[in-house]
Structures are given as structure tokens and as C-alpha cells.
Amino acid sequence: MNAPSALETRRPLSQERIPDDVFEAMRRENLARWPTGKEVVLEEAIELHKRLPRHKRLAYVMRRAVDEGRCLTQPRGGFGTFRLQLELMQILDKEGLADIVPTTTDSYTRNEQWALAQKGIEESERAGRSMLNGYPIVNYGVAVSRQLIEAIDKPAIMLTGTAMPKLTAEIGFAAGYSGYLGSGIAYTSSYIKELSIEEGIRNYQYLDRLAALYQEHGVELHRRQPGFLTGTNIPPCIAITTCVLDALLAAAQGVKNYGLEMGQTLHLVQDAAAVRACQELVQEYLRKAGYTDVFTPVTLLHWMGAWPHDDAQSAALVVYGGTLAAIAGAVSVTTKTTHEAFGIPTPQANAEGLRMTRMAIYLARRIRLDALPEFQFEVELIKREVRPIIDRTLEMGDGDAAVGTVRAFEAGVLDIPWSPNRWCKSRVMPARDADGCLRILDPGLMPFPKEVLEIHEERLKRRAKKEGVPFGPELAVSSVYEISEPLAKLMSDAWARD
Fold this sequence. Notes:
Glutamate mutase, C-terminal domain, 52% helix, 10 strands
């Protein structure tokens, strides 16, 4: 099911909008791949979305949050049966006070292995608990999944973690989900080994063209770029570079409401600077390309690396993540829980993580760092890092973001640390500096300016000297595992005896 269709392979890769007749044929082919595809009727889906109250339409909610300076909360969450998913979403809505309610799909659905997902449903029903790590929306289909939307009083978003979103998007939108997380570059380089960057881009061009089709019929949906979920450190400059390119690809298909996500570095100043730089750089390149009406709110993600096993340490990360998002001016924050190190959280733990985050946002909601010299320095440094990479990528594609992205990955101009995808060279290597900011230890083949790399090197060498360790790859490895280490190792209480 993962092979590209004959229809798609006949079209040369381009950022250009998929023509109407071609897209109509692509939709017919896509919806025929599993029986529940027959339940998708575009006209009915459009009317369903128009009947939703405004507070259950994510595009509207995100715009209003920006207007009012709010930072919204959204968890992750998915279980393997309809009953369990329904219970989860209601708990997140009512007990967690979530502003946005998610549905995370299972791994079989992410990889279009729907027959195996069906077996997982049956095993879950027999066991009386979820045997899948998410909700198999394709198997349950439109009619059943609409009941999930009816059961909550918040907007719902699909979190599918896939480079192959075409059928989940059709069913999710038709069921009443008004948001969809994912992008061709970020998810393909984060989640899958054997699918090329080109095919990932093509798959998400379908999704973005579908969202634009709803827009053409008067329904604005919220599309969102997902940041990176490699479980390692991603410096802001790499995350933002991908945000810019994914946004250009979405805008070319006609998307008007496109969120941007970044994982937190856990350095307050760097995270705040990243939010500001991301918003400004994405809008800068959209305007250059002629897209002046694309709304691009920024979301921060709770720490995306390894988590500690100690509940108290994890609780501190949850609360700090809310504080970071509020001070950074993020429009929303995607939350985690104290169960993160152990597996999928219970609905109650998920709701608790939401409330902890929400209280932190409340306490920090009026704080900003705009006048801080360190903040201004980091914003400008990020821009100096990102622009040469974007400019070189677009140049390699003769102005076409899709072609340029594929060629840039082939050349190592675009690169992702520790990516599982074999179309990424993964030669770039980040590490934390002496102050806790993520810097570039080894640029690989990425075209960072010499003077920028000198700043990174000086600050990383300062850390190596301070800790008495060699300046080299071990700095990067220790940075990946640092936050999950026991507190006694991170900050010993025996310091006075040393």
C-alpha cells in the first residue's frame, strides 16, 4: 500500500498546485483503497463542518487565540477501540480542560496496514484494553468517528505521525476533525526509513490540496507542521528551516491556515527567540513567494527527548514546558505527562498533565523577554543560520520548494540529526553549550556561515572546558540523554563535600 500510484508518478515533482482534474482522479483512487473510503462524501462533510459551532472549529479557535494573546493546551492521545477513545477524549475535554482535543492514530494505521489494525481492534475488544498505540480511524470510518466529535465540546485535531496521510485525512475531515498535524518533510524524515523525501512531499501535497478544497467550499481547516519527533535534540535553526519549506509547499496547494511546531530546547531564552524567529522567517519567505494571506501560528511541544523515570522530575518538565510556551508567546503547547518515560499515559494522567501545564501558563502569561539583549541576540543568530540554508535550497530547485528540498537532502544542504530516513545524511550534529542552548557541533554539509559556526564552536568549547571533557561527539551524545538522568547526577546534593 506504500507504493506511489501510477497517477502520481506520471507527474513530475513540483510545488505547483495539483490541477483539479488530476486531484479528482487521485481522490477516487485513494478512497477506493479501503471499504470505509466509500463513506467519504465531500458535500456532506462540508455541510457538517459548516454546522459545527465556531468554538469547535480549530482554524477559528487558533485565529482567536492569536487575537487575544492566549496560549492553548493540547495533549496527545489515542486508544485502540472506539469506546476507549471516546472516554479518553471526554476526559481530556472535561477533566483536563484541553483547548484542543486530539486523536492519535496507531502504528498500523500510520503505515497503511489496515488489515493488521483490524486485528488489533479485535484483540483489544477481547482483552478489554487497548492493544494498539492509537485509534485506527480508517477501520472505524466516518460515521463511527463522527460520534467522537459529537461527544466533545472542543475542536479536534488528527495526530497521525505518518508520511502517508491521504486516507486518514479524508476520513478525519469527513468525520468532523477540523485540524490535521503532519508535513511531507518533517514526518518523512522523523518516522520512516524506506519512504523517500519526494514521496513524503507528494503525499502531503495531496493532504494540503484536500484542505484547500474544503477552503474553496467555505470551510477553513487548520493544517499544522509537526516539528520533529526523532526523540533527539533538534536546534531551532533546523526546525525553522523545515517550517519554512513545509509552509511554502502547503501554501502552493492553497492552504491558508497553517500552524508551525517546534520542540522545546528547554532554554527559556532560546525557545522564546525560536518562536519569534520562526514566525518572522516563515512570513518573510511566504511573502517573497507571493503568499500574503497565510496564517501561521506557532506551537511549542513539551520536551521531545528522553524523559526521567522520577515523577517529580517529570512534573517539573511538564510545568516548565507550560512556562516556556507562555513566555515565548506560543499560540499553543502540546503537552506530555509524568508517565512519559513508561509508555502511553492513562486518561487521568493525561488530564493531570494538561492542568499542570495550564496553571503554569496562567502564572507566566504576562511575562515577555523582548527587551532582553540575550533574546534579541538569539533571534538574530537564528535568522543568520536559517536564511543561507533556505536560499540555497530554493536556488537548487530554481525557485521550486519541492524540487529544491529533494535536491538539498541529496546534497546534505538540508539535514536532520539522527534521522531514521535513509534519504537523510544525518551528518549534522547538535549539542548543548555551557549555558544550555542547543548549538551546531558538526554542520555536516549544511551551509552555515563561517562566522555563525565560530559562535557555536566557541560556546561549545567553553562547555567542554568547564566540564573537563573532550570537544567532540560525546558532547552531542550526552546532550541527548541529559534530561532523563537521575536528579542526583544532574544536581548532586553532595556538592559541599566535594
